[in-house]
Specification:
This protein is mostly helical. The protein is about 65% helix and about 0% strand. The protein contains 30 helices and no strands. The radius of gyration is 47 Å and the shape is elongated.
Length: about 575
């Protein structure tokens, strides 16, 4: 019969367990020694929970059994290590809640320092991924209680401090990282971002320069420098840096695209103001392409329409203005410019519709209200024109163009009424003279009076020359036409309504959270194949120090020394050894 102790020594753990079970069946019970051996075999076959039950049974029978107590502690540690491996896998798979639950199930009271450190650091990294920065900060501080000099975890703490707005403390922590490892790229970038948050933009640019010098093919420092340049209103420098960030691998996150689009818009505004309309149009189009097509900026759309209008692309300009009003139905400049442009093109119905919308939004804008009156006038709606000019004068009683227009329209209305009045009735005929009364017979007839000389007829007045009504109307219409300068370029009319795409103070309030900037460094082992050039590499590791994520035994086998001994070597020696094993 095989001895279970010998089977254990030979590594035949399942056979040893089977033999102990046979012995239990024969004897009806097991000695504490055999139960302890069975538990150790269960540990070796990764049946840790069953092993713990066996050690507990031994300790019930023999509480002072030191071997069983030691094995129980070993089982708990093994279970913790196995659970940590499971949690690490869940973490890497993106199952953050599952990973947190697994880490929480580890009994750290009996864990060694390495496991305690790894769990606490990784719990902090998960909290950062889930947006719970305060909990992350607590976890990183607990990890540093175990390993106070871990540069990676100091970096993580600095990142969390930055996330909760404790910029001065974050700066000190990043300084600690860089002091220990001057070429720590992520710490250099983090420090650059903190300096920008403290409005130390020149220092931020200098720090980004150092990071780019360290890793010229990485995108993050370019984006950081671009942001600092943008805040200093060095728009050309910002655009060069944002292009560099995209060229060197930026994932074009929403945050980067937001600030990039803003820089493009500011550049386009400058080009528009300097009369470089075609270039401005191209720049606005690029800025609009950076954002969501479902939610474009009305201000950018409008200024793009003006650039198109200046470039002679009137139809495209009008379409862009219509797009602008569909995005923001109360965007006054677009309605005003669209109405004025239609008015100059003789599209009076469209002009009235657009200018009415503009006046409804801003009735105090008397120039727009005046042109609405002109549009009514040109459309032969004199009553509406009178009413509109009176509305303008109610807002600004001394608005001379409206006064003049109102007088002309009222004169036209009066003239038309005079042309429509009936002719005067003819004068009545004079009454006939009464017949003379005959005289009596005996009365001598009176002497005939001398005939009075007939009055000379008054000369008939010459008839007034008849005025041609069509001539009168033409003169009035010419006066109406003078209300708008016909030879003025349409773009000049819209200049006054150019939109401010960046409001006062917006640039000073601008912030940018870097993509991956809050991705903290993790502590776990990886297979050699996952760390070998050219990648892709696991998230959350330091690519320039991939060797530190090898299991300790594999590291020692490859480098012929421990990790502690390796990192005590001079930098060039470390690089040479990494080249030797293919981790450069």
């Amino acid at each position: 019969m095989s001895n279970p102790a010998q089977l254990y020594k030979d590594g035949k753990y399942d056979e040893a367990i089977a033999r102990i079970d046979e012995m239990e069946a024969e004897a009806g019970t097991l000695t504490p020694q055999l139960m302890n051996l069975k538990g150790v075999c269960k540990m070796r076959t990764a049946k840790v929970d069953e092993a713990l039950e066996l050690f507990d049974e031994v300790l019930k029978v023999d509480p002072g059994n030191g071997e069983a107590a030691a094995n129980k502690r070993g089982s708990i540690m093994l279970k913790g290590s196995m659970t940590a491996d499971l949690a690490n896998k869940l973490f890497r798979d993106g199952n953050f809640s599952g990973a947190l639950a697994a880490y929480d199930g580890i009994d750290l009271s009996v864990a060694n320092d390495e496991l305690k450190f790894q769990v606490r650091n990784n719990v902090g990294a998960i909290h950062m991924q889930m947006g719970d920065v305060k909990s992350a900060l607590v976890a990183f501080e607990q990890a540093l209680e175990v390993k106070p000099l871990s540069v990676d975890t100091i970096h993580n703490k600095a990142t969390a401090l930055k996330g909760v707005g404790k910029m001065s403390e974050a700066l000190a922590a990043f300084d600690q990282c860089i002091s220990a490892q001057p070429d720590f790229y992520s710490a250099l970038c983090g420090r650059c971002e903190v300096l920008a948050a403290l409005s130390r933009f020149q220092d931020s640019v200098a720090q980004a320069d150092a990071a780019i010098k360290c890793k010229p093919d990485e995108y993050r420092a370019y984006a950081d420098r671009g942001f600092a340049n943008l805040k200093m209103q060095n728009i050309d420098g910002a655009l060069v840096d944002f292009d560099g960030a995209i060229k060197h691998g930026s994932k074009q996150s929403g945050e980067l695209m937001k600030v990039y689009a803003l820089a493009l818009t500011l550049k386009a505004d400058s080009l528009l103001n300097s009369g470089r309309y075609h270039e401005a149009s191209e720049m606005y189009e690029k800025a609009l392409s950076m954002g969501s097509s479902d939610d474009p900026s009305a201000g950018v759309l409008f200024n793009h329409s003006l650039a198109l209008l200046h470039s002679g692309k009137k139809e495209e300009s009008m379409e862009e203005m219509k797009h602008c009003t569909s995005v923001d139905p109360r965007f006054f400049p677009a309605w005003a410019a669209m109405g004025l442009s239609c008015l100059q093109d003789g599209k009076f119905d469209e002009a009235i519709k657009a200018l009415t919308a503009a006046v409804d939004i801003k009735p105090e804008e008397v120039e727009v209200g005046y042109h609405l009156g002109v549009a009514y006038l040109k459309n032969n709606d004199l009553g509406a024109a009178v009413e509109q000019f009176r509305k303008v004068l109610a807002v600004k009683h001394d608005h001379e163009p409206s006064k003049k227009a109102l007088a002309l329209v009222e004169a036209s209305i009066a003239y038309k009424k005079s042309q429509e009045a009936p002719p005067p009735a003819p004068a009545p005929a004079p009454a006939p003279a009464p017949a003379p009364v005959p005289s009596p017979v005996d009365t001598p007839p009176p002497a005939e009076p001398e005939p009075e000389p007939e009055p000379e007829p008054e000369p008939e007045p010459e008839p007034e020359p008849k005025r041609d009504s069509t001539v009168e109307e033409k003169e009035l219409q010419t006066t109406f036409d003078d209300l708008v300068i016909e030879d003025e370029a349409p773009v000049e009319v819209t200049k006054a309504y150019r939109s401010k795409t960046v409001e006062d103070g917006e640039l000073s309030k601008l912030t940018m959270e870097q993509e991956g900037g809050d991705e903290c460094l993790i502590q776990m082992d990886f297979e050699l194949s996952e760390l070998t050039y050219p990648g892709p590499y696991p998230k959350g590791i330091r690519v320039d120090r991939r060797e530190q994520y090898l299991p300790d035994d594999l590291f020692k086998e490859m480098f012929k020394m421990s990790k502690v001994e390796f990192y005590e070597l001079r930098k060039w020696r470390q690089m040479a050894k990494k080249k030797e094993v293919g981790l450069w």
